[in-house]
């Protein structure tokens, strides 16, 4: 059942992004910013916790999950270190994911030959 809920929640996030591209004519870059910002707001309001409880990885892997991680890490760091935590919390909380994205992106660039669209 966990896999099904992860698929449903992750799929709903993707459907929302597709609707935003089709109906509102938003670019993928704008949708990226909207999703990360939504994750930050929903995480700060503790709403995204419920979505993660239902969807698991289907909620934490997409872009709103990254925003959620930023918000939770920054809030935790502010509670522990004061105002400086607002600047360091998000970086330390998401460092593993960012590092993985850079490393795997670099490896894929070495393995595959990218071509521009025509």
From TrEMBL:
- Which UniProt keyword terms apply here? Membrane, Transmembrane, Transmembrane helix
Segments crossing the lipid bilayer = 6-23, 30-48, 83-112
Specify one Pfam family: SpoVAC_SpoVAEB
InterPro entries membership: Spore_V_AE, SpoVA
PANTHER family for this protein: STAGE V SPORULATION PROTEIN AC-RELATED, STAGE V SPORULATION PROTEIN AEB
Q: What is this protein called?
A: Putative membrane protein
Species = Clostridium bornimense
